[in-house]
Amino acid sequence: MTIRWKHLIVLAIIAPLLGLAVGWSGLMSVRASTGHWAVTDWFLHWVMRNSVSARAVAVGDVPPLDDPGLIPGAAGHFETGCAVCHGSPAQPRPDSVLAMLPPPPNLKVVVPEWTDAELFEIVKHGVRFTGMPAWPVQSRDDEVWSMVAFLRKLPDIDAEAYLQASGLHGLGHAGEVSPLPITCESCHAESKLNDGSFVPRLAGQSEAYLLNALKAYAGKTRPSGIMQVAVGTLSVESLPELAAYYTKQTPAARAGAVHDPILIEKGRILAEQGRYADKIPACLSCHDKADANPAYPKLSGQNSAYLQNQLALFRSGGRGGSQYHHLMTGAAKELTADDISAVAAYFSAR
Ligand code: HEC
Ligand code: HEC
Ligand code: HEC
Fold this sequence. Notes:
Blueprint: H1 2-25, H2 38-56, H3 71-81, H4 83-86, H5 95-98, H6 107-110, H7 116-125, H8 141-153, H9 159-166, H10 182-188, H11 207-218, H12 225-232, H13 238-248, H14 261-273, H15 304-316, H16 325-332, H17 337-349
Helix pairs in contact: 2-7, 3-8, 7-8, 11-13, 14-17, 15-16, 15-17
The structure holds heme C (HEC) (3 copies).
């Protein structure tokens, strides 16, 4: 018995030392060029699948993914954040990434193999040791779900539909757009937005507010994976230029948002009077009045899907923003889901 124990102890000491010796000797190959053995390849992917499936159980309820407003922002982000590795319906994977180990798969083919919760898990957290990155901002599950909604559509869309969805269609021919905002226009062009868009209208917003917002994304005090990537490569000096560009745009005339008049009336009362019992201030005491602080955003005519999403973020404390954002976090704390629909309907139709 004692001899057996001794053997085990000696083994426990020698095994790690042997491991270290092999690592130190340089005999282990880390060459990507030679690929994995088939069995290693199978094993790694098996481990990855099991890990993703196990963690997807804790993801919880899948929100509705069929809202068309979710697609454009995610498709635009896919083009800058994902297509470089995975290719897109408009462009195959470049040869340079096919030499990665493992190579990024063609998502059109593999997406149907995963459930919504599994895709959420992969897109939010990435995959270690493979180059597949995590979502840049871990607090924005709503953005990750919008990407899952887009991935679900991916197998069925062709190049033309992809260019439309990602906003790349016809870009560069507009003539009026100066070079800098071209990438911004792929998502923010007035012509692409409607009341159901989660991407906000920028035209006519004050320069001070736009600049504060861009600085907040760049400085990560306003968490958004999509906007963080969009401003990530810009110099600080270009931000005022972009704010000036959008503040000078005139908001395009468009048919007023169609909402239930009763809902709009409920929103109007809240906007004008607030609700004393719940310490909700009147929204119009800060927003959209003639002598308002220019650093406070205009809400009238903004897309209601965007307004609702931002209000939900403020209410949960996850919106962040400029040095003034705490004012709004206080104002949103006691809003109910019905209040949010009502004020969003009121302001978008205004
Ligand atoms: C730097 C390259 C790179 C970028 C950028 C990238 N990926 Fe990946 N992705 C990979 C690689 C490599 C894998 C393979 C992982 C594996 O097989 O374990 C992968 C795997 C995946 C998978 C799982 C597919 C499967 O069956 O293995 C999904 C889904 C996915 N990526 C979506 C995305 C999305 C959405 C984005 C953009 C937000 C993105 N990826 C950005 C490299 C990348
Ligand atoms: C891939 C799509 C996409 C691109 C490209 C993009 N944006 Fe955005 N933008 C969004 C989304 C989505 C939001 C809302 C993010 C949030 O939840 O905070 C947003 C928000 C903003 C806001 C905040 C507006 C407000 O009312 O608070 C500003 C300002 C802005 N973007 C400017 C820009 C500029 C300037 C560029 C170009 C450098 C750009 N965006 C590129 C999708 C995009
Ligand atoms: C005390 C002043 C104040 C009051 C009252 C107020 N807000 Fe705000 N609100 C702000 C400020 C300041 C911001 C911008 C925060 C930032 O710069 O990041 C803001 C931002 C917002 C945004 C985000 C807009 C965008 O483009 O991203 C929405 C939506 C909003 N408020 C709705 C409301 C509603 C609805 C009410 C009433 C229930 C309300 N606010 C009451 C000060 C206020």
